[in-house]
Amino acid sequence: MSILIDVGNTRAKVCVSVGRELFAHKAVCHKDLIDTVNDLVSHHNETELLMASVAAAPLSDELLSFSESKGIKYQEVKTPPHAFGLINAYRQYGNLGVDRWLAMLGARVECRAPLIVIDVGTAITVDLVDEFGQHKGGWITPGLKTMREALFGNTQKVAGPGQSNTPGSDDLSARFGITTADCVSGGLQAVLIGVFQQAKDTARRTLKTNTAPKLFVTGGDATKLPDCLLSESEYRPDLVLQGLNSYRSE
Ligand SMILES: Nc1ncnc2c1ncn2[C@@H]1O[C@H](COP(=O)(O)OP(=O)(O)OP(=O)(O)O)[C@@H](O)[C@H]1O
Ligand SMILES: CC(C)(CO)[C@@H](O)C(=O)NCCC(=O)O
Ligand SMILES: [K+]
């Protein structure tokens, strides 16, 4: 039995794994991580901690000390040049975010055909993998909350109390808004639709094929994608944790 920890820039995602099965999922803010892990450790014996982080180092150090104090095996996964049949496209392989690496691994477990992973978190990342497991590269763009905060932080009149600024299932990008709230929501949806469309086009051109690769979506804001994007995607909330599960030692 292992405890898997995916530390993102906004939140940490934690779960317990037995074989291929993941359960007891939790998403917590960084300051609650140790307590959450401690709670899981006290309810499950013979555990090992497996973690991957794109956040600042102190959290990894805290988890290491915690594991040592409990006498639990601890492993931090870093982005490798290749592993489990997946090949990193970055020449400076360690610079590729480990969450991007693990999400691709998680998708590859399920699909050996060409695939795109779109992770809608603090940042939105796009990554393409071909049928041979070769990562072909990707994109990094601001996430929804990051875009909203940048917009509101740099304008006087765009943010306002009571305005709903999250894109919903209503396709606001199909028409133009006539309230500030609709203009912002529609604008964010248009950005998302543009990223998806461009990802599919660029993937087809990169792979020199007319077939669109299978599209996997994950991340804390994936459920806020407009219906037209969700309906063409495989939604896997725990893709990064699934990838991390490949590293279990048991
Ligand atoms: N309870 C919550 N607390 C904070 N953010 C939440 C919550 N529920 C959903 N979200 C959304 O999830 C987004 C973060 O997604 P996620 O947790 O996947 O990011 P992350 O893994 O921390 O970030 P990244 O991997 O990009 O560094 C936030 O921008 C926010 O809009
Ligand atoms: C892009 C994020 C923030 C997405 O979580 C993360 O994967 C990261 O910090 N990456 C490092 C830069 C890179 O992947 O090139
Ligand atoms: K993430």
UniProtKB/TrEMBL annotation:
<comment type="pathway">
    <text>Cofactor biosynthesis; coenzyme A biosynthesis; CoA from (R)-pantothenate: step 1/5.</text>
</comment>
<feature type="binding site">
    <location>
        <position position="90"/>
    </location>
    <ligand>
        <name>substrate</name>
    </ligand>
</feature>
<feature type="binding site">
    <location>
        <position position="122"/>
    </location>
    <ligand>
        <name>ATP</name>
    </ligand>
</feature>
<dbReference type="Pfam" id="PF03309">
    <property type="entry name" value="Pan_kinase"/>
</dbReference>
<feature type="binding site">
    <location>
        <begin position="6"/>
        <end position="13"/>
    </location>
    <ligand>
        <name>ATP</name>
    </ligand>
</feature>
<feature type="binding site">
    <location>
        <position position="180"/>
    </location>
    <ligand>
        <name>substrate</name>
    </ligand>
</feature>
<keyword id="KW-0173">Coenzyme A biosynthesis</keyword>
<protein>
    <recommendedName>
        <fullName>Type III pantothenate kinase</fullName>
        <ecNumber>2.7.1.33</ecNumber>
    </recommendedName>
</protein>
<keyword id="KW-0963">Cytoplasm</keyword>
<keyword id="KW-0630">Potassium</keyword>
<comment type="similarity">
    <text>Belongs to the type III pantothenate kinase family.</text>
</comment>
<feature type="active site" description="Proton acceptor">
    <location>
        <position position="99"/>
    </location>
</feature>
<dbReference type="InterPro" id="IPR004619">
    <property type="entry name" value="Type_III_PanK"/>
</dbReference>
<keyword id="KW-0808">Transferase</keyword>
<keyword id="KW-0547">Nucleotide-binding</keyword>
<dbReference type="GO" id="GO:0004594">
    <property type="term" value="F:pantothenate kinase activity"/>
</dbReference>
<dbReference type="InterPro" id="IPR043129">
    <property type="entry name" value="ATPase_NBD"/>
</dbReference>
<keyword id="KW-0067">ATP-binding</keyword>
<keyword id="KW-0418">Kinase</keyword>
<comment type="subunit">
    <text>Homodimer.</text>
</comment>
<comment type="function">
    <text>Catalyzes the phosphorylation of pantothenate (Pan), the first step in CoA biosynthesis.</text>
</comment>
<feature type="binding site">
    <location>
        <position position="119"/>
    </location>
    <ligand>
        <name>K(+)</name>
    </ligand>
</feature>
<feature type="binding site">
    <location>
        <begin position="97"/>
        <end position="100"/>
    </location>
    <ligand>
        <name>substrate</name>
    </ligand>
</feature>
<keyword id="KW-0479">Metal-binding</keyword>
